[in-house]
């Protein structure tokens, strides 16, 4: 116990150290969940999008979640009350929760470091792995499952981190493939962790999913941003890449940067915005590598799944327009089956629909590109659960979320097999 306390003390000191870049202070920042009913109420909320001190992290047809800094919170709450809008405080003090989680995270990591499993590279899935640990785990998989798992390095990130795709294949040619990525948004930690946990489940106990389908998994599509959120608690809510586009503000929203209706809606041309689409489509080198990898396997990859958080949505194209793709019935049907499979597992309720219609217009998304440009007919974005704490979902949820989402993976695999595999 004393040892744990010591670690805790050390890490309080470490996490309070702030880097050169300043982010909105999380001290006293609150997460509000606000329900709205009228168009007037919605437009009132919209006035605060991209206003410093406000971070709209989730929006639906009748509800928004917004992080508000301490200096703005009281005035904002007053405004909500004046306009008769109900809200719930989901997180009382974001900084406190972030700090607590960093300590828990570090304590859990220290406990694992001493084990043989950790030395081998195996992940415990009891804390969120950093970029290095993700890579060690990928290497561990290739050593442990030599005949099935291999790594393909697809290039380096802006800051020079290597990007690795895990290939799972039992061999033989002409198999359909499913491509999975996660972590394009840095702060959505549950996404890479759940994706890797599903890989773990597949290799340990569900090898049947490998018989007729090859899998490609890119667990961290934005390694610089991901590592940045791990490097200091002050950076925990970073979303974008870390590229420098020549402004005072760094980073591009990778999921507004794809070449499919780029910048037509739901994206910003302001480098300081969290939805900055970049100076041009595919300005981000990470997205370029992913694009090239997928296009090199055009025709083989039959399903594209990208994991985000949070909100419990299964979304499919289009996000750039309210129109729907030709195969919308097929996408809706498969999304419905996946949502049902997840609900059967742990009663987690997912909503599904096109991104634009179920959520909001957002152009330049990877799922739109996968369908529109890479011709992958089955293209889905998963917004994994956030519980009450959104991006700060406790690590104890990695396995439960991975387990329930794996049910959707099974359904997708079954669909791909029956439609595309030779029998
Ligand atoms: Zn996201």
From TrEMBL:
Write down the required cofactor(s).
Zn(2+)
- Give the transmembrane region(s): none
Q: Which residues form the active site?
A: 383
Q: Which UniProt keywords apply?
A: Carboxypeptidase, Disulfide bond, Hydrolase, Metal-binding, Metalloprotease, Protease, Signal, Zinc
SUPFAM superfamilies annotated for this entry? Protease propeptides/inhibitors, Zn-dependent exopeptidases
Q: Which InterPro entries match?
A: CARBOXYPEPT_ZN_1 (IPR057246), M14A-like_propep (IPR036990), M14A_act_pep (IPR003146), Peptidase_M14 (IPR000834)
- Enumerate the GO terms in the molecular function aspect: metallocarboxypeptidase activity; zinc ion binding
Gene3D superfamilies annotated for this entry?
A: Metallocarboxypeptidase-like (3.30.70.340), Zn peptidases (3.40.630.10)
Q: Where is the signal peptide?
A: 1-19
Q: What domain of life does the native source organism fall in?
A: Eukaryota
Q: Which PROSITE patterns match?
A: CARBOXYPEPT_ZN_1 (PS00132), PEPTIDASE_M14 (PS52035)
Q: Which residues form the Peptidase M14 domain?
A: 127-416
Query: What Gene Ontology cellular component terms go with this record?
Result: extracellular space
Q: For this entry, list what GO says about its biological process.
A: proteolysis
Q: Which PANTHER family match?
A: FI02848P-RELATED (PTHR11705:SF140), PROTEASE FAMILY M14 CARBOXYPEPTIDASE A,B (PTHR11705)
Q: Which family does it belong to?
A: Belongs to the peptidase M14 family.
What is the designated name of this protein?
Peptidase M14 domain-containing protein
Upper lineage is:
Eukaryota, Metazoa, Ecdysozoa, Arthropoda, Hexapoda
């Amino acid at each position: 116990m004393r040892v744990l306390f010591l670690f805790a003390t050390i890490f309080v000191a470490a996490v309070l150290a702030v880097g050169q870049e300043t982010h909105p202070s999380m001290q006293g920042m609150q997460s509000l969940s606000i329900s709205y009913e009228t168009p007037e109420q919605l437009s009132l909320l919209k006035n605060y999008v991209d206003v410093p001190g406000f971070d709209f992290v989730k929006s639906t047809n009748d509800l928004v979640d917004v992080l508000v800094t301490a200096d703005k919170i009281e005035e904002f709450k007053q405004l909500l009350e004046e306009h008769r809008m109900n809200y719930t405080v989901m997180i009382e003090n974001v900084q406190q929760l972030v700090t607590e989680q960093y300590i828990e995270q570090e304590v859990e990591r220290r406990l694992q470091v001493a084990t043989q499993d950790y030395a081998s590279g195996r992940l415990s899935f009891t804390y969120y792995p950093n970029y290095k640990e993700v890579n060690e785990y990928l290497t561990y998989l290739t050593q442990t499952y030599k005949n099935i798992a291999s790594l393909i390095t697809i290039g380096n990130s802006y800051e020079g981190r290597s990007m690795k795709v895990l290939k799972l294949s039992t061999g033989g040619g002409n198999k359909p493939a499913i491509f999975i990525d996660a972590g394009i948004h840095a702060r959505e930690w549950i996404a890479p962790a759940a994706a890797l946990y599903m890989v773990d489940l597949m290799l340990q106990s569900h090898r049947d999913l490998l018989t007729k389908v090859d899998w490609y998994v890119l667990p961290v599509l934005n390694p610089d941003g991901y590592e940045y959120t791990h490097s200091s608690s002050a950076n925990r809510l970073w979303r974008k890449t870390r590229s420098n586009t020549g402004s005072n503000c760094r980073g591009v929203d990778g999921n507004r940067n794809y070449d499919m209706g780029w910048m037509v809606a739901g994206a910003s041309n302001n480098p300081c915005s969290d939805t900055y689409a970049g100076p041009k489509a595919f300005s981000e080198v990470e997205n370029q590598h992913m694009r090239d990898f997928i296009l090199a396997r055009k025709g083989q990859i039959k399903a594209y799944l990208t994991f985000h958080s949070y909100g419990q949505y299964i979304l499919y194209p289009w996000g750039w327009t309210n129109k729907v793709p030709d195969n919308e019935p097929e996408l809706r049907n498969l999304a419905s089956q996946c949502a049902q499979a997840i609900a059967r597992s742990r009663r987690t309720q997912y909503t599904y629909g096109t991104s634009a219609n179920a959520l909001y217009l957002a152009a330049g998304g990877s799922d739109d590109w996968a369908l529109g440009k890479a011709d992958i007919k089955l293209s889905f974005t998963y917004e994994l659960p956030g519980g009450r704490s959104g991006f700060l979902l406790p690590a104890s949820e990695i396995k439960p979320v991975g387990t329930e989402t794996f049910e959707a993976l099974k359904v997708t695999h079954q669909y791909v097999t029956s439609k595309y595999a030779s029998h």
